[in-house]
Amino acid sequence: MARQANPRTGQWVILWGLFFLICFSLGYPTLNRYDPRVALTDSAQYYKLVTGSPQDAVGHWRYRVLVPYLARPFYWLARGRVGTWNPVFFGLLVVNAALCAMSACFLVLLGHKVFSDYAVALLGALLYLLNFSVANEQLAGLVDSGEGCFILALIWAIYNGQWLLLPVLGVLGALTKETFVPLSFVLAVGWWLTTLRHGVSGPRWAFWVITMGFTGLATVIVLQSMVSGYVVWPWKVVFTEKSHVNFLSGLVGCILDQSFWYVFMWLLPLGVWRLGYLPRAWVFASVTTAIVALILGAWNGAGGNVARALFNATGPVLSLSAAALIAPTKLTVITINELFSRSCSGQP
Q1: 41 CB-near residues (< 8 Å, 6+ apart)
Q2: Which one of 6, 52, 205, 285 has the largest count of C-beta atoms within 10 Å of its C-beta?
Q3: How far apart are CA 253 and CA 14, in angstroms?
């Protein structure tokens, strides 16, 4: 199949703008049709971060500052100028829609790299945006859009050998949500182990993965210590999240919760059939990250909320796989060695 020409910068700007408008429309009900603070406990805390300081919020929500702080300028601009719209949720929606749009653009880039077909790539991005998790969680006054965006940025950086971006993403992801640190580290290590078997990755890769994990962990410790007013050690973060529910009950609660199946009830059946056409390293890393997310959800007693992290880990590969199943295109399996030979030679 002939390789299609890469879009120009202006076309990417238009595409991002289109994705942004789609996401803003999906999140519009938060502005004046319902109050996310009533439906989502998390949203009430992020609302306080936009209007006040981390000390106004409680629990681990007070440390997830990046998205609320980015929303502040839009909140200040909107206050008294947007009629019946809630100005705080307007600010959060602008930032979340921008991050979701960026996630979709990363997915288009990755989809074209894998399938050499923009039709499949665009369909995969649209399936991603139309998932239950995006409209009802990422665009509902929460911060999961940031975690999802930075995970996709991490995948894109690994795919293209942009190692210098890994520590930066470690910091940004940690400022967004502390769960990004273990999830991103497991994803990168899982990808590295898969490629290591084929003699593709080496010490440089390991160095940047470890650096990303260190910078992310350091960011969490420094941030939580500054907000709390005393030194917060990593093990305290872990054991503070321990639920009173035993691990097995927590695991069952995560899997059986209806919110879990709202996200995956069509994504899994459609997405599993074409996973063999995606890079094995990406698929293995995503599945491994999802398993770790499920373990953390059971530890925390997260219930259906674990679906957010699971979607951030597996949503991209499943969406592209589902798009490859639906779209009429000629598919070829991309091997590990071919994948990295393309990256090293600068081929798209």
Answers
A1: none
A2: 285
A3: 42
Report the distance separating Cα 193 and Cα 210, nearest Å.
13
SS3 content of the chain, % helix, strand, coil (to 5): 75, 0, 25
Looking at residue 62, its pLDDT comes to 95
What DSSP assignment string belongs to 53-103?
Answer: -GGGS-GGGGG--HHHHHHHHHHHHHTTTSTTS-HHHHHHHHHHHHHHHHH
CB 217 within 8 A of CB 264: no
In a 3-state reduction of DSSP, which class is residue 180?
helix
Over the stretch 91-127, which tens digit does the pLDDT of each residue have?
999 999 999 999 999 999 999 999 989 999 999 999 9
Round to whole Å and give the CA distance between 17 and 236. Answer: 42
Name 157's Cβ contacts closer than 8 Å, sequence gap at least 6: 163, 165, 166, 169
pLDDT of residue 200: 63
**Quick one: average pLDDT of 327-346?**
53
**Scanning the structure block, which residue is given the tokens 């969680």?**
137
* Rounded-to-integer distance, Cα 346 and Cα 348, Å: 6
Give, to the nearest 10 degrees, the angle between helix 180-196 and helix 203-228: 170
Structure confidence at residue 187 as a pLDDT band (50, 70, 90): very high
Question: Is the pLDDT score of 271 beyond 50?
Answer: yes
Name the nearest CA neighbour of 246 among 299, 283, 203, 288: 299
